[in-house]
Amino acid sequence: MHKINLLRNFLSTALLMSVSLGMVTDALATAEIFALSISKGINVTNCQSCHTGMAGNESKGNLKAGYQAAYNADKVNLAALKTLINGPTPVPTPTPVPAPTPVPSACNLPNQMIGGVCVLPITGAVGKATSGKPRTDTYKVTCAKGTKYLSVSVKDLLPVNPSKISIQGSKSSSSSPLSTDKSDGDDTYSRSVKLAKGTGVYLVKVNKSKSSTPGAEAYDAQVYCKGVKGIDTGTKVVIKQNQ
Question: Closest by alpha carbon to 202, among 160, 230, 168?
Answer without folding.
Answer: 168
